[in-house]
């Protein structure tokens, strides 16, 4: 199951799933099956190398990723920083992340393998594999997981870019709707309407998109007189 042709086809199949959450779930499921471990998870790497769970093949695997985020320690952060595979042979005795390893051991896991997913040299996600046995991940499992991560990162990164573009387009659409409402309700031109939204955003320390959504929802903007003057 770890041959390159299989994983090349898998990348196309993952991309066809259409959104980042389903792709992350597909990567986790495939990782568990291909490597032959007890559970797997995929987490996104946010600013500050903060771990954000995206998918897990079990509640315990997903919880283990949540703990990395809440405790601020774990192999995912190390893999993201060093851009290398991280192996933990015995979580019950691993002193690198004492809080996380202790909690994950109580979930029933004894060893883990963490593989970074790269895009243009930046780690944007990690594949986390778990076993109930100590020292379950050797050179063969490492090679399979690394190949899977390399192939699947293409699909996940591409869909994430598409999702970001869609979010940007949606945000621009809402802002345009808000401009139209202000123009109609208060007799403003397009440039002034946008300036009002931007100033309201800056003075209230609120995202421009959130201000626009409020205008669309309430059909008005409190305090407009002062901002438009």
Automatic annotation (TrEMBL):
<keyword id="KW-0808">Transferase</keyword>
<dbReference type="InterPro" id="IPR036388">
    <property type="entry name" value="WH-like_DNA-bd_sf"/>
</dbReference>
<keyword id="KW-0805">Transcription regulation</keyword>
<dbReference type="GO" id="GO:0016301">
    <property type="term" value="F:kinase activity"/>
</dbReference>
<dbReference type="Pfam" id="PF01590">
    <property type="entry name" value="GAF"/>
</dbReference>
<dbReference type="InterPro" id="IPR005561">
    <property type="entry name" value="ANTAR"/>
</dbReference>
<dbReference type="InterPro" id="IPR003018">
    <property type="entry name" value="GAF"/>
</dbReference>
<keyword id="KW-0804">Transcription</keyword>
<dbReference type="GO" id="GO:0003723">
    <property type="term" value="F:RNA binding"/>
</dbReference>
<keyword id="KW-0418">Kinase</keyword>
<dbReference type="InterPro" id="IPR012074">
    <property type="entry name" value="GAF_ANTAR"/>
</dbReference>
<dbReference type="InterPro" id="IPR029016">
    <property type="entry name" value="GAF-like_dom_sf"/>
</dbReference>
<feature type="domain" description="ANTAR">
    <location>
        <begin position="155"/>
        <end position="216"/>
    </location>
</feature>
<protein>
    <submittedName>
        <fullName>ANTAR domain-containing protein</fullName>
    </submittedName>
</protein>
<dbReference type="Pfam" id="PF03861">
    <property type="entry name" value="ANTAR"/>
</dbReference>
<dbReference type="InterPro" id="IPR011006">
    <property type="entry name" value="CheY-like_superfamily"/>
</dbReference>
